[in-house]
Structure formats: C-alpha cells, structure tokens
Design goal:
Chain B: It is a multi-pass membrane protein. The complex is a heterodimer of chains A (about 300) and B (about 270). Chain A contains 12 helices and 2 strands; from the N terminus they run αββααααααααααα. Chain A is an all-alpha fold and about 300 residues long. Chain A has a two-stranded antiparallel ribbon. Chain A is globular, with a radius of gyration of 24 Å. Chain B contains 13 helices and no strands. Chain B is globular. Classes of the chains: A mainly alpha (about 300), B mainly alpha (about 270). The interface between A and B is large, with 108 and 106 residues.
Chain lengths: ~300, ~270
C-alpha cells in the first residue's frame, strides 16, 4: 500500500507554522494508534518470553520455551490446519458465489436496490447474533433439521455442530452467509467503475452477455477481487468470534473448528497463562504478516498503485 | 429475454430467502412459546405471544446494556471520525517528509484486527485501571477504527479541487480555516460513511468487551446476548426475543445510510 502523492507540492521547504499544523492535526491520531495498537503488539513480543500469570511484573524469563511448546502442541497444529482450511475454503466458496451474484445484481432489474440492501443484512448483524441464531438453528432438534424433514429430506438431518466431519462445513456455510454480502458490495462497487462503453462496444461486435462478462468485466474486476481476497485471507487467519460463540472454548477443538485465535484465548487468558497467550499472539501475528507480505509482493504488486488507495 | 429474466428473479428470490431466513427465524421465534418451538422448531407462531418481548423491554438489564452499547458506540464514532479526518487532512493535503511512512503505518493497521493484540491490550487496559469501564473498551476501539477511517477519507479529501483551496488562500483564509470552513462541509458524505462503519463496528464488537468487561453491570449488548443465551439456555423463545431486539439499532442505522456505505466503499476501492 502506497501513499497517494500530495495534491500540490509546495516549492519552498515547509515553515514552522505548517509543521505545527501537521503535528496538531495528526498528533492525536498517531498517539492513540501508537498507544493502543503498536505498543500492545510490541509488548506481546516481550511478555511472550516469560511464564507469567498476569499479576505484577513478569519475572520468570523462559526464553523461547513458550514458542517451543506452541510449535509442539498438537492442539495448535490442529488449529493451524483448521485456519488453513478456512482460508482456502473461504476463497473458493465465497469468491465465485460473490462474483456470480454481483454480475446478477449489476444488471438493471426491478427491486435491485432492495436486493442490494438485503444481501448486506447478514454482514451488519453482529457475530454474537449470527452465532446464537445459527447455533439454535443447527442443533439436532433445531429448525434446520425440521425444515429438511418437512421438505422430505429427513435423511439428511444431522448433528451439524458436533459431528467433526460436518462442523467445519457448517462453519463455512455460516461464514459464507455472513460475509458474502461484503464481497458482493465490493465487487459491485468495482463494476461501477468499469465504463459502460466497453460492454456497449462488445455488444456492437456481437459478443454475448457471458462473453462480455468473461472477457471484459472479470479482467477489469481483477484488482477489486485481489483486494477482497487479501481481506478475506487476513480475516480467516484471525477468525475468532463465530467459532468461540457457537462452539465455545472446549467443543471447538473436538468438533474440528478451533482456530489459532480461539487457541490463544483458551490457552492464554482462560487458563491464566498470559505469557503463553502473548507468545501465541506473536505466532499468529508473524504468520499473518508473512502471508500478507507474500501476497502483497506477488499478487497485489500487479495493481501498481497499491491496495486500498486510489491511483492518481 | 422474458424467460431469462424470470430465472434471474427466481435466483434473486431464493437468495433473499436464504439471507433473511435466519433473521426472520429470530424475530418470529420471539413471538412463540417454548413448547411451540420444541414441537415444531421451524413453525410459525400459533398463537402469537408478545410476552417474551414485553418482558425483555421491561427489564433493567436490557436497557442498561443498550445504554452501555450506545455510549460506547457514540463516543467511539465521534472520536474516530474527528481524529481520523484531522489526520487524513494532513495526509491528503500537506507534503512533508515522513508522510508516506505515516500513511503506511495506518494502512498496516488495516491488516491486523484487534485479535492479535488482544492479550497485551487487556494487560495495558488493566494497568490503566480501566477494566470493567467503558473507556477501557472505547480507547482501543478508537485506535483500531482509525485505519479504515483514514484509508476511506484520504482519497475523499484529496478529491477536493485545489482551485477551491487557492481561492480560499486568495481570500486570506489560512489552511486551518480552509479545513474548518471548506474541507469539513465538503467531506460530510465521507464522514458519514466512516461514522456508520465505526458505529456498527462498535455496536457489534465482541472480543474486546469480552476481555475488558467482566462485570455484568458494564456489559454491552453482544456480551449481554451471550450471557442471556447461556443463562436462559432452556428458554429459547426469550433468547430469540432478546437477540432480535438487540439487532434493531444496527439494522435501522444501516438501512438509513446504506447508500452512503456503498458509496464510501466505491470511493475507497477504485478498481
């Protein structure tokens, strides 16, 4: 991500009055950001070297012991594997669905604006509500199985949340339900930046609707898709709320839905091992950062002017 | 063409059903009794009962949590937008050494939601003596809300034509006067977009309050919903009523300003 160039480069060096303005205007934001974002992340790295119950100063320096424990813990390996599945499945499931829906909604049709609002509703309700509602719907004697039975599909009724073979798919279904609206809105926004003349010209040349989408809309939507994929990957790596709300701290690992973040909270704060929890946070941070940097380097670099910034 | 259109509408209808089904299930379920829910989990209320809703609306706990959520969301929103627009103005319209680094700093924050920092953040808030207080939630929320706000606002502020600024300078308007009299009024749409995003983010926030607020009296609605759901786990109907009441504000806010949010995202994601 690069900063956009300034609107008007000033010829002369900047005077003290201007310096003062810069400090006064941006100072508060930088202070709050440094104090509550950067400082805690740095402190995590420090606390991670200690065995510490969270009271007083950490004194029991254990070096890399916490990290060795993390990397040897099968519970963490499982969580990492679940995170990996969630990252891949989110991209594979949400991407095509969202592109399809955006193409559908990009056509002029009656009720279009209503549909756009409604598709965004799951994104707006909180994770707690989403989790509470789906946990009730998907329990064995819940509404989900009831609907299946009344459709004559009673044979498909299952224990969606506790069965380890199904739970991850239930989670994926809920994640798609909750977040696909965000992807659709992003893609629609991207499509509105594609000039109509291009598809009009294609229509004049006799291109079908699908040819136009395949050869004009999709390639031009590339940058938006790549940004969405980036946000999706980061979100999947740090997934916490929905898993913790639906499965709780104990069930998630037996149901096969635990993530690095739920592992961090369960083994760290809930167990009272703050040093260990901070070490897990550092591991999570480093993994996210490596993936983010690789992605920026090899994927987003194609969009020369950087991710979420606009070009000129 | 007619057949294709009807297929499109059919798909759209199914989509709406799928998206709204669970939401409708929550709202309608609140009008049922537990025995109705046990017998037909996916049925309609028969008869409709309003007792679940009225009981919750009459409870102090619910309104205290509404109050806590409202205070946290309003203060977070005002502070994020104020600090955000000031910093964005500097990033958008001043040129100085370190500007790129400052932008990169905030942009990097976008990559790391509060999850990574939550454990040390809790310790920091504890050391500041702010556990179980709303400021303990609000301050970190402001900090983590800044990246999105700044990324959306900077292109917005840069889009203000420099002719306006030059005209203002000719009229002997200082840069700060220009910021106050021209930039702020002109960027109201962007401020609303970022404000809504901050408000909804705070209203729905779970992880941070989960760590900071342990005392029932300080609970915000998401914590309240979860506590209620585990406390009354056998009283499904009441849980559904509580849940649907707690999602009203975010839904109302969103439907009022939907266009602004989509517009703001369009500005930020230039494809």
């Amino acid at each position: 991500m690069q900063a956009p160039p300034p609107v008007r480069p000033r010829r002369r060096g900047i005077g003290w009055a201007q310096r003062l303005e810069i400090v006064a205007l941006s100072g508060p934001a930088i202070l709050v950001f440094a104090g509550f974002v950067i400082f805690p992340v740095l402190m995590a790295a420090y606390y991670g070297f200690y065995r510490w119950k969270g009271f007083g100063r950490p004194t029991n320096f254990v070096g890399l012991d916490n990290y060795v424990t993390i990397l040897q813990d099968t519970l963490f390996h499982e969580a990492l594997w679940h995170n990996f599945q969630i990252v891949v499945l989110s991209l594979v499931l949400q991407g095509p669905v969202a592109v399809g829906l955006a193409l559908l909604l990009n056509r002029r049709m009656r009720g279009q604006s209503v549909i756009r609002v409604l598709i965004f509703v799951p994104y707006v309700i909180s994770e707690v509500i989403t989790g509470t509602a789906w946990a009730l719907i998907l329990q064995t004697n819940g509404a989900g199985n009831d609907v299946l039975r009344s459709l004559g599909l009673g044979g498909l009724a299952a224990d969606w949340l506790a069965n380890p073979r199904l739970a991850i798919w239930s989670l994926m279904f809920i994640l798609v339900w909750k977040y696909v609206g965000f992807a659709v809105i992003l893609f629609l926004a991207g499509m509105q930046n594609i000039p109509d003349e291009l598809s009009e010209a294609a229509a004049v040349d006799g291109a079908s609707f699908w040819q136009t989408q395949r050869h004009i809309t999709l390639p031009l939507l590339g940058p938006t898709i790549r940004i969405w994929a980036f946000l999706s990957i980061i979100g999947s790596l740090q997934l916490f709320d929905l898993v913790y709300i639906i499965w709780g701290q104990y069930v998630s690992s037996t149901a096969g839905t635990s993530t690095m973040a739920t592992y961090m909270v369960t083994e760290g704060r809930n167990a009272g091992n703050y040093g260990y929890g901070n070490a897990v946070a550092v591991v999570l941070f480093v993994i996210s950062m490596i993936i983010a940097l690789i992605y920026q380097r090899f994927v987003l670099r194609r969009d020369t002017e950087g991710a979420l910034t606009e070009g000129r | 063409m007619g057949r294709r259109n009807s297929i499109v509408y059919l798909v759209a209808l199914m989509l709406i059903g799928l998206m709204l089904g669970p939401v409708i299930y929550i709202i309608v379920g609140g009008f049922r009794t537990n025995s109705q829910i046990t017998t037909y989990p996916a049925g309609l209320p028969d008869p409709w009962v309003t007792g679940n809703y009225t009981e919750i609306l009459a409870s102090d706990t619910f309104w205290r949590q509404v109050g806590n959520s409202t205070i946290a969301a309003v203060v977070t929103t005002v502070a994020v937008v104020t600090l955000g627009v000031m910093a964005s103005y500097v990033l958008a319209r001043y040129s100085f050494r370190g500007r790129g680094a400052m932008y990169a700093l905030f942009a990097a924050g976008l990559m790391f939601p509060a999850t990574v920092a939550i454990t040390p953040l809790y310790i920091l808030v504890k050391n500041l003596g702010l556990v179980n207080t709303l400021p303990g939630v609000i301050l970190p929320q402001i900090a983590f809300g800044l990246p999105t706000t700044i990324i959306i606002l900077v292109p917005f502020l840069r889009a203000i034509p420099k002719e306006i600024e030059e005209a203002a300078a000719i009229d002997r308007c200082s840069r700060l006067g220009f910021f106050w009299r021209m930039v702020l009024p002109l960027s109201v749409p962007g401020l609303i977009t970022t404000g809504i995003l901050a408000f909804i983010g705070s209203w729905n926030s779970y992880l941070l309050p989960l760590f900071i607020l342990n005392d029932q009296d300080s609970f915000t609605l998401p914590l309240g919903v979860q506590a209620f759901a585990s406390q009354y786990s056998v009283d499904t109907a009441k849980v559904l009523a509580f849940t649907s009441l707690s999602m009203i504000p975010a839904l109302v806010f969103f439907s009022l300003f939907e266009r602004r949010i989509v517009g703001g995202l369009t500005g930020a994601v230039k494809g």
